[in-house]
C-alpha cells in the first residue's frame, strides 16, 4: 500500500470512529428472548366467585376469588357455571357483575369469555317432524346463543363432550353445530370463539363438523405427554395440531378423583412436562380446570375446605408454555420485590434474603416461590403476577424511589408532628401503596410523585441572618437562605462601615430542617474619627456593602454517577480525532505538492 493510500485509509477510519461521538443518546437495547404467544384457557368455576354465596355447595367456607384475580397471560376464560334449580336468585349478583364489570374489565385486557355447556343440550332441538328442519336448527341455535352468551356480552361457546352418542344423536348434534357455526367460530369470522371440549378419542360427534371449531380442548387429567402425543395424532385428520389445546386440573374440593398433576419436584410434574411439550411441538396452548384450587392437595383440610390460593402453578405454567427463561423470570421477580418493599415494610436484610433466594432458583417454579411462597399463607406477595409485572416494567419508578427515599430521610429526622409533616407522611404512604399494589398506570405514578415532591419541598424552612445595631435597628438588609432538607448553609462574615461586630446570637452555619433558623448579628457604632483640616483633600470612604451569603450544598455521595448528558468527559476524543484528520489531510496535501 502506498503512503497516500495509507493516509486516506487512516482518515476514513478516524471519521467512522467519530460517528458514535455525534450520535444522539439512546437507551441500551438488550436482545429479548424468543417468546411464543400460546393460548391459555382456564375454567372459571362461577359458583366459587365472591358474588355467589351458597350456590352449588355444601361447604360453609366463604368464596375468595373474583374474575379480577384471573392472572395476565390467560386469554380465554370459560365461564363454567352450574346453578341448581331454585338457586337462581343467589346466582344473579354474579351474572350481573359479569355483564357490568368483569366482562368489560377482561375484554379491556384482550381476554375472550366463553360459556360451556354439556353436549346433551344439543340434542333437545324442538321439532315438529321426525327430524329437525334447517329452520328449526337455526332457531334453536339462536335460542342457545340468547340463553348462554349474548345477554352477558360473551364471546363464544364451548361444547363439553364426555359421552358416546348414537349415530342418530350425532346427526342432530351435527345440525345444531352447523347452525351455531353461522354465528360463532371460524366460519362466522366475527371475532367469536367456538370450542369443542372432550376427554376421549370419540370421533363421530366431531369429525363431520370439525371445521366449525376454533380449537379442540382435550382433558388429559392425570396424564403425561405420551397421551398428549397420542390424542393430538388421533385428532390430526380433523383438526390441525396448532388448534389442539390439552389441559390438566387441580384437586377439586370434595372430589374423589386423584389426578396429581402438580406433584413436586416441579420438573417431574405433569404441569411442567405438558407446558414444555406444547411449546416445543407447536400445539395451540393449554388449559387448566378449577384454577382457583391451585396449590391445594388431596389431603385434609384442603380437600374439604375452600381457602385462598396464590395461583403459583398457574402463573408458572403461563411462563413455561410461552418460553420465558429463568433469568427473565428473576428480573421480573426482583422488579416486583423492589417496588413492594416499602408498602410491605421489608427490612434491607429481608430484601437481601429474598434476592439471594431468587438468584439461587434453577427453574421458573423456584423463582416464583420466592415471591409467591409455596402457598398463600407463606407468600411475601400472593398477588404477584409475572406477566403483569412485565407490563409494569415499562413504567419507570426512579423518580418514585428517589422521592420515597428523601421523604423517609426527612421523617426519620424530624421531631414534631406539624401539619406539613403529617401531609408528607400521607403523601409518602400514598405513593408506596400505589407502586406496591397489584397494578398502576404511568399517569397515576407521575401524579403521586409530584404530590410527594411538593410535600418534600414544603418541609425545609429558611435560615435568616439579621444585622442590627445595639438598639435593635436594622443596619443592613437581612440575608435569607433556602435549600433542601439536610443540606448545609453558612452565612459569610459581613463588614459594615462605621460598625464593629459586637455579638452573634444563633449559629451562622447549619443544615436546613423543618424549623426556621435565625442568627442575629449585633454591631456597635464606631466612635467618630478626627476631623480633617480644610486644606486636606476630602476622601469619600463610604461604599455600598454587598451581602455575601450562600447556601453550601451537601457533598456528593460517594460513588454517585454523573448525571445523564454530562459531556465533560466525553468530548476530548472528538478533538483528538479532528486533529488527527486535519493532520492527515495536511500531510496528504504536502505529498501532492511534491
From TrEMBL:
The catalytic activity of this protein is classed by the Enzyme Commission as 3.2.1.96
Q: Which reaction does it catalyse?
A: an N(4)-(oligosaccharide-(1->3)-[oligosaccharide-(1->6)]-beta-D-Man-(1->4)-beta-D-GlcNAc-(1->4)-alpha-D-GlcNAc)-L-asparaginyl-[protein] + H2O = an oligosaccharide-(1->3)-[oligosaccharide-(1->6)]-beta-D-Man-(1->4)-D-GlcNAc + N(4)-(N-acetyl-beta-D-glucosaminyl)-L-asparaginyl-[protein]
Q: Protein biosynthesis: present as a keyword of the record?
A: no
Where this protein primarily resides, as one coarse class?
A: secreted
Task: Give the Gene3D superfamilies listed for this entry.
Answer: Glycosidases (3.20.20.80), Putative peptidoglycan bound protein (lpxtg motif) (3.10.20.320)
Swiss-Prot/TrEMBL GO biological process terms: carbohydrate metabolic process
The answer on whether this UniProt entry bears the keyword Membrane reads yes
Cite the entry's keywords alphabetically: Cell wall, Glycosidase, Hydrolase, Membrane, Peptidoglycan-anchor, Repeat, Secreted, Signal, Transmembrane, Transmembrane helix
Entry's localization field: Secreted, Cell wall
Q: What is this protein called?
A: mannosyl-glycoprotein endo-beta-N-acetylglucosaminidase
Amino acid at each position: 500500500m502506498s503512503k497516500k493510500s495509507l493516509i486516506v485509509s487512516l482518515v476514513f477510519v478516524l471519521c467512522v470512529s467519530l460517528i458514535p461521538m455525534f450520535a444522539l443518546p439512546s437507551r441500551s437495547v438488550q436482545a429479548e428472548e424468543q417468546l411464543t404467544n400460546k393460548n391459555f384457557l382456564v375454567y372459571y368455576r362461577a359458583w366459587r366467585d365472591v358474588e355467589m354465596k351458597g350456590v352449588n355447595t355444601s361447604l360453609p367456607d366463604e368464596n375468595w376469588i373474583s374474575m379480577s384475580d384471573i392472572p395476565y397471560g390467560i386469554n380465554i376464560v370459560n365461564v363454567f357455571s352450574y346453578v341448581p334449580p331454585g338457586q337462581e336468585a343467589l346466582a344473579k349478583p354474579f351474572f350481573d357483575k359479569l355483564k357490568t364489570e368483569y366482562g368489560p374489565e377482561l375484554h379491556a385486557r384482550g381476554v375472550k369469555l366463553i360459556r360451556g355447556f354439556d353436549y346433551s343440550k344439543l340434542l333437545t332441538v324442538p321439532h315438529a317432524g321426525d327430524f329437525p328442519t334447517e329452520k328449526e336448527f337455526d332457531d334453536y341455535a339462536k335460542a342457545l346463543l340468547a340463553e348462554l352468551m349474548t345477554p352477558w356480552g360473551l364471546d363464544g361457546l364451548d361444547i363439553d363432550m364426555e359421552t358416546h352418542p348414537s349415530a342418530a344423536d350425532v346427526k342432530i348434534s351435527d345440525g345444531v353445530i352447523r347452525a351455531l357455526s353461522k354465528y360463532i367460530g371460524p366460519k362466522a369470522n366475527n371475532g367469536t370463539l367456538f370450542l369443542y371440549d372432550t376427554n376421549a378419542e370419540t370421533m363421530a360427534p366431531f369429525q363431520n363438523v370439525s371445521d366449525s371449531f376454533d380449537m379442540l380442548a382435550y382433558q388429559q387429567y392425570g396424564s403425561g405427554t405420551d397421551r398428549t402425543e397420542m390424542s393430538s395424532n388421533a385428532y390430526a385428520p380433523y383438526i390441525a395440531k396448532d388448534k389442539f389445546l390439552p389441559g390438566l386440573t387441580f384437586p377439586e374440593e370434595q372430589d374423589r378423583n386423584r389426578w396429581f398433576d402438580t406433584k413436586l419436584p416441579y420438573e417431574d410434574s405433569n404441569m411442567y412436562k405438558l407446558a414444555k411439550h406444547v411449546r416445543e411441538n407447536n400445539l395451540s396452548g393449554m388449559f387448566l380446570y378449577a384454577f382457583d384450587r391451585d396449590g391445594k392437595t388431596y389431603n385434609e383440610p384442603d380437600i374439604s375446605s375452600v381457602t385462598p390460593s396464590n395461583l403459583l402453578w398457574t402463573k408458572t405454567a403461563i411462563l413455561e408454555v410461552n418460553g420465558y427463561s429463568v433469568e427473565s423470570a428473576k428480573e421480573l421477580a426482583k422488579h416486583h420485590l423492589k417496588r413492594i418493599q416499602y408498602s410491605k415494610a421489608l427490612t434491607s436484610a429481608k430484601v437481601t434474603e429474598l434476592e439471594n433466594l431468587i438468584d439461587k432458583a434453577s427453574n421458573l417454579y423456584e423463582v416464583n416461590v420466592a415471591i409467591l411462597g409455596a402457598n398463600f399463607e407463606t407468600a411475601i406477595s400472593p398477588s404477584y403476577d409475572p406477566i403483569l409485572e412485565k407490563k409494569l416494567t415499562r413504567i419507570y419508578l426512579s423518580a418514585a424511589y428517589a422521592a420515597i427515599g428523601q421523604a423517609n430521610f426527612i421523617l426519620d429526622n424530624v421531631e414534631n408532628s406539624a401539619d406539613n409533616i403529617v401531609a408528607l407522611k400521607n403523601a409518602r404512604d400514598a405513593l408506596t401503596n400505589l407502586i406496591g399494589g397489584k397494578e398502576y398506570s404511568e399517569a397515576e405514578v407521575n401524579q403521586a410523585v409530584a404530590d410527594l415532591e411538593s410535600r418534600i419541598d414544603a418541609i425545609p424552612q429558611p435560615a435568616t441572618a439579621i444585622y442590627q445595631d445595639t438598639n435593635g435597628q436594622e443596619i443592613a438588609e437581612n440575608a435569607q437562605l433556602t435549600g433542601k432538607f439536610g443540606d448545609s448553609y453558612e452565612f459569610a462574615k459581613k463588614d459594615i462601615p462605621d460598625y464593629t461586630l459586637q455579638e452573634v446570637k444563633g449559629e451562622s452555619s447549619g443544615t436546613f430542617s423543618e424549623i426556621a433558623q435565625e442568627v442575629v448579628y449585633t454591631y456597635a457604632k464606631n466612635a467618630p474619627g478626627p476631623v480633617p483640616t480644610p486644606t486636606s483633600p476630602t476622601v469619600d470612604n463610604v461604599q455600598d456593602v454587598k451581602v455575601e451569603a450562600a447556601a453550601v450544598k451537601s457533598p456528593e455521595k460517594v460513588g454517585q454517577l454523573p448525571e445523564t448528558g454530562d459531556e465533560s468527559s466525553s468530548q476530548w476524543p472528538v478533538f483528538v480525532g479532528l486533529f488527527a484528520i486535519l493532520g492527515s489531510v495536511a500531510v496528504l496535501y504536502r505529498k501532492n505538492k511534491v
